[in-house]
Structure formats: structure tokens, C-alpha cells
Amino acid sequence: MSGDHGSSRISAQVRHVETLLESRGLLAAGEVDGRIDEFLAGGTPANGARIVARAWADPGFAERLLADANTAIREVGLSMAGGLQEQRLKVVANTAETHNVVVCTLCSCYPIALLGPSPSWYKSEAYRSRVVRDPRGVLTEFGLELPAGTAIAVWDASAESRYLVLPRRPEGAASLTEAELAGLVTRKGLIGTAAV
Amino acid sequence: MSRINDVGGMAGFPAIVEEPDEPPFHADWEAHVLALNGALIKRGVYNLDEFRDAQERLPVQQYLGASYYERWFAAISTLLVEKGVATADELAVDDHGA
Predict the structure, then answer these.
(1) Domain named Nitrile hydratase alpha/Thiocyanate hydrolase gamma: which ranges (chain A) (predicted)?
(2) CATH number of the domain at A42-191, please?
(3) Which helix (H) or strand (E) holds A99?
(4) Who has the most CB within 10 Å: A9, B28, B39, B89?
(5) Model ipTM value
(6) Burial tier of A181 (Cβ tally within 10 Å: 0-12, 13-18, 19+)
(7) Interface test with A, best of B26, B33, B36 (most A CBs within 10 A)
């Protein structure tokens, strides 16, 4: 992809703007590379998986998490303050009655400082437009068939408020350690387009 | 009145496509755009709300035709001009010279 004409053209444009900003003192040498390294070393879905595993293993933590996620995630050494500004995190728990799914219809709001970049489909107009109108159909396309009696709650993220789904603990996972439980959790599970 | 970014409920977009093992960025320049934006916000050249607004008021056809980070770069370019950091001519790359 990086070799095609469109991409090489915008690469040149971005480089040009960087050089211009450096010459005007608005960008330090090496700053861009440092920021990229920092970003790539920052958020990851594994952080969300750790939060979920702790909530499955410790009902008291689950309760605190659902009441005030920004405070509770500090118990597992995480925070929402890693990005450009701290956002409110709300954790929504799946139950037998209700399944939760997250979207940002207006742009791409996502707990990026915690979970790293969102997948492209999350940012696509296709997902943003449809999941609020036909969530059950969208989830079916993702391979998630919910019982007809299960309600679906769609949470529309905003600049100030980000959401994380707490999936239901899989059956038969009783004997697993917290680390093993975390290994069951996927990024799609944290968004709500997968069961776990 | 809603802007083009307000797509919730809108019909007519293509199918949702999942990319297996998707990398964080699809080209180096995308990572550079992300870093550039963070640096400019940190320096107070503009804020996060202004950045989002600059994407949302892109011309409709440009918004729909652009990739995610192309939108970001267009918004950054718009704000650099509006904030008086550089002129549009200074930001433009001469296809033959650059």
C-alpha cells in the first residue's frame, strides 16, 4: 500500500508539513517518532481484558467498576489519563437479558488511551450508520446470534464519554486463573460485536 | 442541522468489512499524522474540539471520499491556515518539485 501513487503523494505532503512546522518551532526534531513509539507502546486490548478478568474473578471489583470505572481501573494499575485529555469511562455489563454494543456515530470516539487504536470497521460509516438502526442484523454479520428475547443496548460514545463492554463470563471458566480468563477476552468482546 | 459526519441511522453505505490482523496503521504517514496532531494540540495551536470540528465541516464529497487519516490531515491543514501558522500555498507540495 505504501508504494502506490496516492499514498506516496500524501506521504510527501505530511513530510512537507512536518518540515515546515519544525522550521517554525512548532515541532521538535524527533518528536514525531517519539510520539509514535509512545502511542504504539500505550493502549492495548489486553488492558481491557485484564479489567474484565478482574471483574469476573472479583464481584466487589465488578461492582466498583460499574459504579465508577475511572476510579476502579486504577486498582489494576490502569487509567484513562494516557491520552490528550482524560475521558469518562463507563463500563456496561452484558446479562442474560441485555447485550451491549458500542459505537461512535459522529466520528470514532473509543477508549484509545486504554485499548489502543480501534479497528477500521469501528470507524467506518457502514458500522456507524447501521448498528444504531439494525444492531441485531449487524451482530449477526459479526457471527453473534443472540436469543430473540435478549435486548440490545447500543451506546453512542462521545468526546467526553467512552464505553467498554463487560462480557458475560463463559460457562465452564470457573477453574481458570485471572490471567487465563483475560486470555478469553477479545477486542470485539470489549466493543460488543462478539460475546466475549 | 446535521453535518455529514452524523451518519447514525443513515442507509446506503456499503457492507461492514473486517480486516483480519489489522495493523495499527496502514502506512507510515498515518502514524506521522497522528503524532503531528498530538504535538499541535499539546502546544495549544488548536484544541481537540476544534480538530473534530474541522473534520466535520470538510466538504461532503471530500469527507466521504477520504480515508480516516486523510480526514485528519485535511483537518490539520485547515486549522494551520485558519490559525495563521502557514498559508495554504506554504502547505502545498509542488508535485514536480517536492
Answers:
(1) 10-194
(2) 3.90.330.10
(3) strand A98-103
(4) B39
(5) 0.91
(6) buried
(7) B36
Instruction: State the amino acid at position B80 in one-letter form.
Output: L
pLDDT score of A86 more than 60: yes
Domain locations in chain B? 28-84
Which set of grid coordinates corresponds to residue A28?
Answer: 521538535
Q: Does domain B28-84 have CATH number 1.10.472.20?
A: yes
SS3 letters across B53-73: HHHHCCCHHHHHHCCHHHHHH
Q: Is the dihedral of CA B19, B21, B24, B28 positive or negative?
A: negative
| Per annotation, catalytic residue among A8, A11, A107, A124 | A107
pLDDT number for residue A85: 74
Residues 104-123 of A with CB under 8 A from B: 105-108, 116-117, 119-121, 123
Least Cα distance to A159 among B55, B70, B80 occurs for B55
Q: What is residue B96's predicted lDDT score, i.e. its pLDDT?
A: 56
The amino acid sitting at A154 is V
Q: Which residues belong to CATH 3.90.330.10 in chain A? A: 42-191
Smallest Cβ–Cβ distance between A32 and the set B36, B45, B95 belongs to B36
Give a three-class secondary structure readout of A144-170.
CCCCCCCEEEEEECCCCEEEEEECCCC
Q: How do residues B46-71 score in pLDDT, each as one tens digit? A: 999 999 999 999 999 999 899 999 99
Q: Is the minimum CB–CB distance between A63 and chain B shorter than 8 Å?
A: no
The contacts of residue A173 (CB under 8 Å, 6+ apart) are A56, A181, A184
DSSP string for A48-70 = HHHHHHHHHH-HHHHHHHHH-HH
Residue owning grid cell 494540540: B41
CA distance A135 to chain B (A): 11
